[in-house]
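Input chain follows. Return structure tokens only.
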Amino acid sequence: MNQKICFIGAGNMATSLIGGMLDKLDDDGQITACDIDSDRLQELAERFGIQTSTDNFTSAQHAQIIVLAVKPQVMRDVCASLEELPPNPQQLFISIAAGVPIDALDAWLGGGRAIVRCMPNTPALIGLGASGLYANAYVSEVQQSVAQQILEAVGIAIWVDDEADLDAVTAISGSGPAYFFYFIELLEAAGVKLGLPRTTAARLARQTALGAATMAQDGDVEQLRAQVTSKRGTTEQAILSFQQQRLDALVDAATEAARRRSIELARELTES
């Protein structure tokens, strides 16, 4: 990439992106991490050998890519501190803050900025993330490619054509890891009720989840399910129970609730 990149915010997601970029990209560019936590910055400098700073404006002024990696509640103030940056169509802003619309980001940054908004998820922390991306009209094809490379350093990155689709991305992949964690919790608890020791139930449930997810990466999940579901067998009875209890309706209702809350949060963040 060979471009100067400034991370504003040095939390877990920023750390994962920095680590992924240094590990996977042939990047001769210069990475600077900015944060108000000097201890955190020292930790990053020692771990990655990158530059750090508590001066957002100066660091951003000299960067071609600025990754906004702060909490949504402070995004307006952070953007306001960068509003006086000279107009530069070659300068790309990438926001990984949930719920902050791209038009609000652009307005807070002074207008006319090239911005990519991303919705990553927590498995990015282990290089297995799934991110949805949306670009405004000021983003060039080259800048889109750069944003994709950065997010693909920690998983997969998928573009959406409509920013509203990021609310659906939030409901599926953004919040999705918690759904699977919850199902594993329930499966472990069910194992205990069936008489297994808790440690045994936990190991079986977690390894089963890992194995199933790995097989699903390159397979047709409906076909994979059919292969396990023998006629009049044990799995068939469990699946029939799921269907009778309308698990599909529960999943639809849960993801719609998450999507709706994503829309509400965006409204709250921009109206506050």
